[in-house]
Amino acid sequence: MSGHSSYVPSKGLMQWLDARLPLPRLVYDSFVAYPVPRNLNYAYTFGGILALFLVLQILTGVVLAMHYAANSAIAFDSVEKIMRDVNWGWMLRYMHANGASFFFIAVYIHIFRGLYYGSYKAPREVLWILGVIIFLLMMATAFMGYVLPWGQMSFWGATVITGFFTAFPLIGDPIQQLLLGGFAVDNATLNRFFSLHYLLPFMIAGVVILHVWALHVTGQTNPTGVEVKSSKDTVPFSPHATVKDGFAMVVFLVVFAYILFYMPNYLGHPDNYIEANPLKTPSHIVPEWYFLPFYAMLRAITFNIGPIDSKLGGVLVMFGSIVVLFFLPWLDTSRVRSTAFRPVYKVFFWIFVANAIMLGWLGSKPAESPYTWLSLVGTIYYFGHFLIVLPVLGLVETPRRLPGSITEAVLAKNAGGGTPAGATAAPETKG
Amino acid sequence: MKKLLPALLAAGLAFAPMSIALAQDGQGPTENTASEEAAVGHDASAEAAEEGHAETPHYPLEHPEQLNWSFAGPFGHWDLAQLQRGLKVYKEVCSACHGMRLVAFRNLEDLGYSEAQVKAFAAEYTVQDGPNADGEMFDRPGIPSDYFPSPFPNTAAAAAANGGAAPPDLSLLAKARAVERGFPTFVFDLGTQYQEAGPDYIHALLTGYDQEPPPAIADSLQPGTYYNPYFISGPALAMPPPIGDDQVEYPDGAPQTIDQYSRDVSAFMMWAAEPHLAERKATGFVVMIFLVVFAGLLFAVKRRVWTGTAH
User: Fold this and answer.
1) Which A positions 126-185 lie with beta carbon below 8 A of chain B?
2) Whole-prediction pTM
């Protein structure tokens, strides 16, 4: 998509088409000749895996929509009809429901990989911001999709989450009523959520195109964080990256199939097999697992801060936890891209990961002591990581010496740890 | 939300729960304020407070025993004789109060019955159909495409006939109940493929009635409820002990005990909730073999492609 094109169309149809609409050239330049750093590890395969899952979700979703009825009177039964009477319906529905979970597993690994290797730093700020937008769209899509089966958790999750908007003074109530199509979650809500749930994945696909475009302009990062300097540093996308991504995709699919076929309800909540009942509140309302860290941050604010009451405070903190990601490229002051060469930040990175997991666990717990104050500690650390650790550490940390080039790092690594050359490069592979 | 709250509170009183439970007062989640459990739970919480129990009691009081099910694990399959016995228990005992509206008679062919047997089985039920050409609803014998008729015309009627607690429909119950596993058990479950929390729970509940409640709980039990430490949302539930030894006759010589009845009906309910379970696991085995072999081949190609390219 950028730079010099080496595409030479074969005679006949391809040459004819290339002169009119250079689509084959675009594909060739993007997915065949496109140079990728030779030292990418398997953490870099999750972009491809995410593309696969977006396609999988859209395909299964389109077929499910042929059998699903977005009406609060029959939605629950129509899902059961899919599970019982539609040919392979059980598989389609379990693929779609668990596919959402695996989509999030992949996107979290993808995001943490970006955090670790500094993929958000110049000149890739736009690429990163587009990624955060995709993440937001994914969250909206997943939330609305979870409402569609019209089980107890669907209904009460929708009630709680749309209730967030009422925290905002003046505009809150009208926004919530617009979202719900009424004063409470009901048929109107289900209808518009279904419509939006069908729309948003195509918006995701659109932003993904921009995301890949931006990626192909700047090129990928790599574990050393040193930019590509010569053609020796890269290999052509096909066959090198194609086959490596393909292998990683199939391994990921093995894990997916294991859950899909053997424990398809492991990641779900049993209450969602009870039809929605507006008169009966479940004892614990919990969102899907991938929202739990954010849910914990929402509930961590149990006190008023000046004019901001605890509810609004919680909502602001929750939205803020995503908004802060948009500013990440400018919050990190370090000139070294890869965490592999930042010994101090590496420790903080893994604390951040552990903190995120802890917040996820806290999100599944009832809102009582000690979980609420632990959530508060986790929330403070989450924001502290972005607002204090990243800006300060970049200024005070002494990074390790960077290799001169990707090739130098690779050759040093392959020469073995015993040689003196090993001292200069690829410390990310050592303890 | 503001309009919902009074409605919920009213519902909490009118719709006395299938889970008449105690001692939920002061429990954490703010969303819980209107649940029926809280509405009837004042006695016990006062009791707990007197004893200095600041902590919320966690239900169920006892965790269900993990049983061996034929349908567990990667090669899980149905024990058809067990499902047939479970159907008999459901038909002769449970169906007096519990519906199974998502299961059709035609589905019973999965249990090993012939088409003729299913027709005969369906014909034993009376199903309302219509309207006919005169605009009248009429009763006729059931046919295989009919669904199990529910014992009550609607939830309100079911609640009214059962002391305020409507007996839940059993179609999905085996997937709709699961006692929380907690950390780290839920991690180990990934390895053991434990997905039988529903049938384990149902079996534990059905066999858990014969226990004496601890004195603190005994004094606070609501009239018309039955102590059962396995009940998922309180110390006692509105369902009386549903079945006794020798209540259902088994033609195949299986023991006619509460334990065996409970196992059989739990397995039957798992089938009702997930009729394609065995097919799913069998498909999964083939898919896993395909994917693992495919991954192996791709890895070999990957090795070949990257030979000579240090990386």
Assistant:
1) 156, 159-160, 163, 166, 183-184
2) 0.89
